[in-house]
């Protein structure tokens, strides 16, 4: 590590050398993790990219008439998320090159309750689906924001936004739309508070999965001022760090979100929305639980769900079951779960799913009783 201290342009940044130096372990780019082992000592048989490319190829071979619509859906969905990916990747790279990770994380110290409340409220206004929110979650994890606030935003953001509120009101009425908005913020607050209590008990000390976009370290703050070096381009090592982070993080997020949208296209193409919705008809507590269970892995976005559920409610589906299905489906789905799995450790992933399921069931029960 001593050779890195003599690097030109680092006269001010000796404290940053340990994490800016290309040879350090904390900044090395991890080898890609694949899904199933093949021959011992070699790469795994199927990588994420193999699945991303292989699924459309299977559609082309086995169901050629659906190929164009399948690929078009996945590409359109991915391109819609691309601006968010670009913003998140650039922000993470800038913060790490400037040495602002710990600095930004400290801004939340002593303000966790306020951060949870703001995250839940902002999540209710942010127009992100369960996949589009992933780049922002990665950014928050990277700068050391408290997991409790991240969970609050993570749970509330996909549930409601102004356009979804109006669409839901038009199809299901204002009581349903307002109820969903209230449950969205409440679920964020509930999830944030639960994670905060767990963290105080020593759980989730290190929630980030090793090798994810949110792991690793950046350059340190200036040893002279103790503050981040925002104009990182004045130092060659920080500039190199920015480029390395930009490349690595872009590749990571693009890979996993591409997988998410390919899985989403498969669900939309081969699992009709009306078939999913019709499986959760009926009323009572049992139907609420079943609706939440079916809704979580299914993909039925907030624009498609309201008119379908309106028709099912006309046929006798309970309002509580409809609310539980809508919330569970918005919080998580198979595409979103694939991306979430890549960012956090299994314990955090399981907590996210558990909070989403519990919140959906409680929302359905409360709405059934009130309405």
UniProtKB/TrEMBL annotation:
Any Pfam family hit? ArsP_1
The answer, when asked if Amino-acid biosynthesis is one of the entry's keywords, is no
For this UniProt record, the keywords arranged alphabetically read as follows: Cell membrane, Membrane, Transmembrane, Transmembrane helix
The keyword Acetylation belongs to this UniProt entry's keyword annotation:
no
Subcellular localization is given as: Cell membrane
Q: Per the record, GO CC terms?
A: plasma membrane
Membrane topology field: Multi-pass membrane protein
Q: Where are the transmembrane segments?
A: 44-62, 74-93, 113-129, 176-199, 252-273, 279-300, 321-343, 349-370
Family designation: Belongs to the UPF0718 family.
Protein name, per record: Permease
Query: What is the source species?
Result: Roseibium marinum
């Amino acid at each position: 590590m001593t050779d890195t201290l003599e690097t030109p342009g680092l006269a001010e940044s000796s404290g940053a050398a340990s994490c800016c130096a290309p040879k350090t372990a904390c900044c090395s780019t991890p080898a890609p993790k694949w899904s199933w082992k093949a021959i011992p000592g070699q790469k795994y048989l199927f990588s994420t990219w193999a699945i991303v490319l292989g699924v459309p190829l299977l559609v082309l071979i086995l169901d050629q008439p659906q190929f164009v619509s399948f690929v078009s859906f996945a590409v359109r969905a991915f391109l819609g998320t691309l601006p968010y990916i670009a913003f998140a990747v650039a922000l993470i790279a800038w913060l790490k090159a400037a040495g602002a990770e710990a600095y930004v994380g400290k801004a939340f110290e002593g303000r966790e309750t306020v951060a949870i409340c703001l995250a839940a409220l902002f999540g209710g206004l942010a127009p992100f689906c369960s996949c589009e929110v992933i780049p922002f979650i990665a950014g928050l994890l990277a700068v050391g924001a408290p997991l409790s606030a991240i969970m609050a935003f993570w749970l509330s953001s996909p549930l409601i936004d102004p356009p979804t509120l109006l669409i839901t009101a038009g199809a299901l009425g204002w009581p349903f739309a307002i109820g969903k908005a209230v449950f969205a913020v409440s679920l964020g607050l509930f999830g944030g508070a639960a994670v905060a209590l767990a963290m105080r008990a020593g759980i989730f000390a290190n929630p980030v999965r090793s090798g994810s976009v949110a792991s690793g370290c950046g350059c340190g703050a200036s040893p002279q001022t103790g503050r981040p070096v925002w104009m990182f381009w004045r130092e060659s090592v920080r500039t190199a760090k920015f480029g390395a982070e930009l490349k690595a993080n872009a590749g990571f997020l693009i890979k996993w979100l591409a997988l998410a949208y390919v899985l989403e296209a498969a669900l939309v193409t081969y699992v009709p929305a009306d078939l999913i919705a019709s499986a959760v008809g009926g009323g009572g507590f049992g139907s609420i639980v079943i609706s939440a269970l079916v809704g979580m892995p299914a993909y039925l976005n907030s624009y498609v769900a309201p008119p379908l559920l309106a028709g099912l409610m006309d046929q006798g589906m309970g309002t509580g079951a409809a609310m539980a299905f809508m919330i569970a489906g918005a919080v998580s789905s198979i595409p979103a779960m694939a991306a979430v799995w890549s960012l956090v450790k299994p314990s955090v992933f399981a907590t996210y799913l558990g909070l989403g399921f519990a919140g959906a069931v409680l929302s359905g029960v409360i709405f059934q009783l009130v309405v």
